Amino acid sequence: MNEEEKTKEIERLQSLLRGQEESARLLVRRDLELTKANEKLETLGQLKSDFVSVVAHQLRTPLSVTKWAFDMLWDTMKETLTPEEVSMLIRGKESNERMISLVDDLLNVNLHDAGKVQYVFSNFSIEEVVNKIVEQLMPVASKRNIHLEFISKQLLPDIYGDSKKIGSVVQNFVENALKYTPKKGEVIVRTTVEDSVVTVSVQDTGIGVPKAEFDKLFTKFYRGENAIKTVTEGSGLGLFISQKIIRRHGGKIWFESDEGKGSTFYFSVPITK
Ligand code: ADP
Fold first, then answer.
1. Mean pLDDT of 232-250
2. Residue of the nearest CA to atom 19 in ligand 1?
3. Residue nearest to atom 3 of ligand 1 (CA)
4. Cα 43 from chain centre
5. Which of 38, 219, 263, 271 pairs as cysteine with 257 (C-beta 3.0–4.6 A)?
């Protein structure tokens, strides 16, 4: 390489270097902008959570008062009411309870998001928990003419976890199965144990989940298109909260489904943590 070529090469390298320095400066600036935008989003997210929390808390008290009034009316007057009045009272009571459960879900979501949910761990029988929930939901199943059954073929060991929260997951699964299964269908709850892991499954002959929505089911507020058409009421929070609870127990939650034929929702948790 002669002198002239060397000078040209040096100039070329210097210009490359300048270009790289400019790119680095741009990157730093973009990084700062993104950090600021992210901080803004976090603040907005926090404001939204605070807003939901305040509204939900404000709604909780009047709803509890209404519940108390409905319960009192039911206990003291149900014998004296006409069948039409009884049915109106039941409808009011049920709507009030649905609203309470929606408000509780909203409060719960915020607590889960903030990692502030209190868990009370102890050894408990999952079989007893499942049995109780199935018994409680039997009238709902009969009303919809759905055959609901709990099958447990193995003797299950106790598991270490929060029995109330695990119970709420079972309840979410069975309530969904009853909600999304047409009349005269079937909902079967099963418990099994293998390799120190207990699995609970709820199988139904319901509307199923469209394949295109498989990834979205556990996302916050997500409701399937066919689900919205079948049951207008729903928050899309049950599975989101259930997933948080099962993960906290070191477990797994999943489902299998065939649209129009039925679904099976599963969760499994280790016996000890
Ligand atoms: P919600 O039932 O209030 O809509 P969930 O979080 O419990 O909220 O469920 C989210 C969605 O998952 C439902 O809207 C529905 O699309 C789908 N899904 C849940 N369980 C079933 C089921 N057993 N059969 C069909 N779809 C279901």
1. 93
2. 176
3. 234
4. 24
5. 263
